[in-house]
Amino acid sequence: MKILIVAPRYIKAPGEFYQFPLGLGYISAVLKKHGHDVFCLNSNKSDVPISQLVHQAVRSFSPDICATGAISPFLRQVKQIFKAARAAKPEIFNVVGGGVFSSDPEAALRLIDVDAGVIGEGEETIIELCQALKEHGDLSQVRGIAFSHKGVVQRTANRPPIEALGSIPWPDYDGFGFGDTIINQLPNDAYFLHATNAPRSIDMISGRSCPYYCTFCFHPAGKGYRERPLDDFFAELEFRVRTYNINTLSLVDELFSLKKARLFEFCERIKPFNVHWTIQLHVNSVDDAILVRLKDAGCTYISYGIESMSQPVLNSMKKRSTTTQIDKVIRWTYDRKLGIQGNIIFGDTADTRDGQRIDGLVGEEPEVHD
């Protein structure tokens, strides 16, 4: 099938740096692997209105499917993309993915002109959906989607998480022209402040989801925590270094690792690449010995989900952490001269004006496996 994948516009003007949309990159890669004719439209490479770009692409490429994905703040752009695609080709099949749909499929189907939406991980779902469309099959048999039929929202059976993360093709950076973007980075063009004045940074994942069940958190890749084989990860890293000459790596896993053995192996294997890298960790999985290994291997920043320094609020959030542990880990990290980024959340049901609430118990901490 012919498929148009549209990357929403993340920047104000062409030439500015933006983080590559990994989700769309994975979808493009898996579609190409299965023989589909894919055209990637990166709206960030032009200052032409996105509706005009999509309209022109549909009229020129004449795709069977128009697909995009995003998080909720990009809802307006997602609506514009599909409206333009429909205007250019009324019979086109519009498919949306990402948090803008997975977080509330029923609402999204009412707000966006789409024929179907992918819930959670999309690599297996998009292939089955394309096959069903090609064969004029029953969409209700495609797991992990929602669609509207005669005004009634139908949500199909849940799709199990992809366990073999090493079987997924690497994200299609080239299709979206990422090589033209990496040269434009500045030290502050990231979630973290880069440790070099001339960063050439790329995002990668070494695992998906998170084993914690904090009340505020939405897991875009489902709730099953899975770790990617390190052989596959480092094969991709070697390729990216060779292709883009990167010097900085952002590991955008929800949680980098709970297992010390895997973390230590990662540290040993990444050292020869001589790159700076950043991660996200839970305070319960950190001790001073781990920080020493991270620093020695080139890690420059760690993001911690602090969320609150009120124990009753942490209990309410089901964070499974304590203010004592948070304080200790932050001090360790500071002493080891590693950059610290911390997330803080306001508005939990246990929050009060004076920050006092005494109900709730501290949850058990998960084991850190050696």
Your description of this structure?
This protein has 370 residues and is α/β, with parallel strands linked by helices. The chain folds into two domains: 2-155, Rossmann fold; 185-344, Aldolase class I (TIM Barrel, Alpha-Beta Barrel). The protein is 31% helix and 18% strand. It has eleven helices and 14 strands. It has helices spanning 22-33, 50-61, 75-88, 99-102, 105-111, 123-134, 230-244, 260-270, 288-296, 311-317, 323-335, and strands at residues 2-7, 37-42, 65-69, 93-97, 116-118, 145-149, 152-155, 201-204, 207-208, 226-227, 248-251, 276-281, 299-307, 339-344. The strands form three sheets. It has a seven-stranded mixed sheet, sandwiched between helices. Helix 8 links the parallel strand 11 (248-251) and strand 12. Helix 2 packs parallel to helix 3. The protein is globular and about 60 Å long.
